[in-house]
Each structure stands twice: as structure tokens, then as C-alpha cells.
Amino acid sequence: MNKLLMEENDRLQKQVSHLVYENGYMKQQIHTASAATTTDNSCDSVVMSGQNQQQNPNQRPQRDASNPAG
């Protein structure tokens, strides 16, 4: 029984080491991704203009002069 517990302890210690390594890697990836998103704002105007159009549902869409039905 003691040998089984020691083997299980060893297995768990290896698993913890692996998870700590993965955690550090994921933190680095998140930091890298967040740094990239805070410096690249080139698409913000497109996103914001789309949101502004959807905020007022009572406003009628503009008619297309070239379309007789519009």
C-alpha cells in the first residue's frame, strides 16, 4: 500500500509540474495577445460605426434613389 501511495504521489507531482508549466505558457500567450490588441486599433472605427447604426432601431433606413421600390 505504501508503494502505491508513493507512486501516486510521484505521478501527481509530475502532473503538477506539467500544469505549472502550461499555466506559465498560457499567461505568456494571454499577455502577448493583450499587448497586441491594445496597440492595434485599426479596426475600431469599423466596429464602432456598425454599432452606431444598430443603436437606434426606430430610425428608418435611407432610401436608395436608384431603386424604384426603395
TrEMBL record:
GO MF annotation terms: DNA binding; DNA-binding transcription factor activity
Polar residues: bias regions: 32-50
Keywords, alphabetical: DNA-binding, Homeobox
Biased composition (Low complexity): 51-60
Region (Disordered): 32-70
Protein name, UniProt field: Homeobox-leucine zipper protein ATHB-14-like
